[in-house]
Amino acid sequence: MKMYEDLIRTTPDEHIYSDHTYDNVDVRNSFKNPFKRKTKRRLIVVLVVIVIVAVTIIFTALLLAKEKLSNTLETTDNQQTTSSNRKTTDTDTSNVNCATGWITTFGLRSCYLFSNDNKDWIGAQSRCRKLGGSLTDIETNNELNFLNHEVRSRFRVYWIGGTDNGTEGKFRWEPSGQPFTVTNWSPGEPNNAGNNEDCVYYNRQNGRNKWNDDNCNSIFSYICEIKV
Ligand SMILES: *[C@@H]1O[C@H](CO)[C@@H](O)[C@H](O)[C@H]1NC(C)=O
Question: CA 128, CA 116: separation in Å to the nearest integer?
Answer without folding.
Answer: 13
